[in-house]
């Protein structure tokens, strides 16, 4: 699936910096990694919420 998004100049600069540093091979890789971290964060928060009940 292809989705078009708008990024702030700061977000674009961050992504380009990550690619230029050699940490990632493409902007897509940066975004994919960020989404994986976000999903893990969401799962952790969900588990914490369930433990609080």
How would you portray this structure in words?
With 53 residues, the chain is mostly helical. It has a domain at 20-52. 72% of the residues lie in helices and 0% in strands. It has 2 helices and no strands. It has helices at residues 9-20, 27-52. The longest helix has 26 residues, at 27-52.
Question: Topology of this structure?
Answer:
Layout: H1 9-20, H2 27-52
Organism: Gomphosphaeria aponina SAG 52.96 = DSM 107014
InterPro entries: ParD_sf, Ribbon_hlx_hlx
Protein name: CopG family transcriptional regulator
Radius of gyration: 15 Å
Q: Tell me the strand percentage band.
A: under 5%
Fraction of residues in H or I helices? over 70%
Number of strands: 0
Counting helices, strands and paired strands, the structural category is mainly alpha
Euclidean distance between termini CA atoms: 37 Å
What best-fitting shape do the alpha-carbon axes yield?
A: elongated
Uncertain regions: pLDDT < 50 for 5+ in a row? none
Assembly state of the chains shown: single chain
Order of helices and strands: HH
Total of DSSP H or I helical runs spanning 4+ residues: 2
Largest sheet: none
Report the average pLDDT across residues.
92
């Amino acid at each position: 699936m292809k989705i078009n998004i708008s990024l702030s100049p700061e977000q674009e600069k961050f992504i380009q910096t990550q690619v230029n540093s050699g940490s990632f091979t493409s902007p897509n890789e940066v975004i994919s990694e960020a989404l994986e971290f976000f999903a893990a964060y969401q799962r952790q928060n969900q588990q914490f919420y369930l433990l609080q009940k």
